[in-house]
Amino acid sequence: HVQLVESGGGSVQAGGSLRLSCRASGFTYRNYCMAWFRQAPGKEREGVAATSTGGGRTYYADSVKGRFTVSQNNAGNTLYLQMNSLKPEDTAMYYCAAVPASCLRFIRSGDFGYWGQGTQVTVS
């Protein structure tokens, strides 16, 4: 079955950078949309970035455009999120998610069936 394992979270000062990784296993379909979400205490889960393992467009939330970059390795089983120019409002638990479908313009948590356990990002 599908497993997603995130890593790379931590604490950083405002303006700094972090790189998150999400290693996927158990994929059986040819194409998956893989995405990053985040959830801060007391707030709804927010879609941050998404890309398809089979290629195609990437999508970003307006709040991270120009600062975050989503990418994947050649095998399509590891998703990355390079986060630059971090702000205190980026503080949240970051989750990796996947669904055997093409990515849609709007990254909605209800569209994704597989989730990782999350990794904490704290910006001070």
Describe this structure in words.
This protein has 124 residues and is mostly beta strands. Helices cover 0% and strands 48% of the residues. It has no helices and eleven strands. The strands form two sheets. Strands 2, 4, 5, 6, 9, 10 and 11 form a seven-stranded mixed beta sheet that branches. It has a four-stranded antiparallel beta sheet with strand order 1-3-8-7, with no helix packed on it. A hairpin with a 5-residue loop joins strand 7 and strand 8. It is globular. The model has no long low-confidence stretch (mean pLDDT 95).
How many strands appear in the DSSP assignment?
A: 11
Determine the N-to-C terminus distance.
37 Å
Series of H and E elements: EEEEEEEEEEE
Number of helices: 0
Proportion of residues in helical segments: under 10%
Low-confidence stretches at least 5 residues in length (pLDDT < 50)? none
Report the average pLDDT across residues: 95
Can you describe this structure in just a few lines?
0% of the residues lie in helices and 48% in strands. It has no helices and eleven strands.
Keywords:
0% helix; 124 residues; single chain; seven-stranded mixed beta sheet; 11 strands; mainly beta
Helix and strand arrangement:
Layout: E1 3-7, E2 10-12, E3 18-25, E4 33-39, E5 46-52, E6 58-60, E7 68-72, E8 78-83, E9 92-99, E10 114-115, E11 119-123
Parallel strand pairs: 2-11
Antiparallel strand pairs: 1-3, 3-8, 4-5, 4-9, 5-6, 7-8, 9-10, 9-11
